[in-house]
Specification:
Layout lengths: L4 H13 L17 H16 L7 H14 L18 H16 L6 H13 L18 H13 L6 H13 L13 H16 L4
Helix pairs in contact: 2-3, 2-4, 3-4, 4-6, 6-7, 6-8
Length: 207
Amino acid sequence: RGPYGKQLDRCVNYLLENTQQNGFICDAPASSHGPMYGHGFATLFLAQAYGMSSHPQLREKLSLAVKLICSTQNPEGGWRYQPQPTEADISVTVCQMMALRSARNAGLHVPNQTVDRCIDYVRKSQNSDGGFRYMLSGGPSDFPRSAAGVVALFSAGVYEGDAIERGLEWMDANYDPGRNPGGGRGSKFPMYYQYAVERVALAGGLR
């Protein structure tokens, strides 16, 4: 309903039409090298829509999408580009955790074990300086993935503690609104601000 109800209905229908039988939300011709990003955000969108709509297919398709996320969590506790439980990185992992949190808020079942394993993965992704690295194999802290790490913990229900405090402190010390971490129109630019805004909203502002 409202001035954009028709457009939102088209968005919902588009995602439902592109939800495969196993729950994977993917428009193959438009897919990038990392379709689990799209799946996570599409699941998040459907969960938000389900919480505000009586669309007959929403719960069925959303449930399948959530099950796919849970079944493709890798042994380390995270997710990566493909719907396969192999590798994992912090940026894809936060997409799935945001989706699972939204789905749980909408009344769908999300196993506690899935959430606990994700929390463990994110904690292990934190460097000694308080920032977060891309993968467990190592690497420097960077703002987009550090923001993602903090948002992932918030999404998993971790609102305080050493990991949160050190992550927020690192972000406060390294926030540079004039910097484009993706370089020009690089892919990290939207992530930089998206998760920065999430972090500010959830943690109550830069301190």
